Amino acid sequence: MQPSGFQGEISPGCINVKRNPQSISEFLLKERVIIVPLSHHDQVNLLKDILSNQHTDCCGSVSEYQQLERLIKSLMVNTNVDGNIKTILQDVYQYSQNGVNASDLEQHIETNRNQLSQWVDDIGQFS
C-alpha cells in the first residue's frame, strides 16, 4: 500500500521515493514504521557492511555513496568514536564524494577495491 502523493517503490527494508514529505510521514504513521536512531557502533557496522558489499560485489549506487557520506558526517561529530577511525573516515568520505560524481560506478569501485578491503579491516581494528 502506498500513500497518496507517493511516487516510488516500497519493498521490505527499502523505500525508494520521490515524495511529498507530508505523505511519507502519513505513510510511516499509518504503517506503524518505527525509526530508531543508530548507535555509533551500529553506524560503524553499517559503514563496514556497505564497504564490504562494494568490495565483494564490485558494484554500488549513488544512494550508497550518499548514505556513506551521512554516516561519516554523523560519526565525525560523535565524541565516542575512536580518533583512529576518524582518520580513516576522511579517506572514505573522499571516496564516497568521488563515487557520487563518478560516471562509471563499477570502475570507481574497481579502482578502489584494495582500499575498500583495507578500510574495513582498519575500522574493524578500532571499533
Task: Summarize this entry quickly.
This protein is mainly alpha-helical. Helices cover about 65% and strands about 10% of the residues.
Helix share of residues? 55-70%
Strand content range: 5-15%
The low-confidence parts are: 1-21
Query: How many individual β-strands?
Result: 2
Compute the separation of the termini in Å.
Answer: 39 Å
The overall average pLDDT, rounded, is: 82
> How are strands sequenced across the largest beta sheet?
1-2
Q: What is the rounded Rg? A: 16 Å
Sheet bearing the most strands, described? 2 strands, antiparallel
Order of helices and strands: EEHHHHHH
What multimeric state do the chains show?
A: single chain
Contiguous helical run count:
6
Helix vs. strand class: mainly alpha
- Give the CA-based shape: globular
What's the structural domain tally?
2
Please explain how this structure is put together:
The chain has 127 residues and is mainly alpha-helical. The chain folds into 2 domains: 1-35, no CATH class; 40-126. It has helices at 21-30, 40-57, 62-76, 83-101, 105-111, 113-126, and strands at 7-11, 14-18. Strands 1-2 form a two-stranded antiparallel ribbon. Strand 1 (7-11) and strand 2 (14-18) form a beta hairpin. Helix 4 (83-101) packs antiparallel against helix 6 (113-126). The longest helix is centred in the C-terminal third of the chain and has 19 residues, at 83-101. It is globular and about 45 Å long. The chain starts with 6 loop residues before the first strand and ends with a helix. Mean pLDDT is 82; it is low at 1-21.
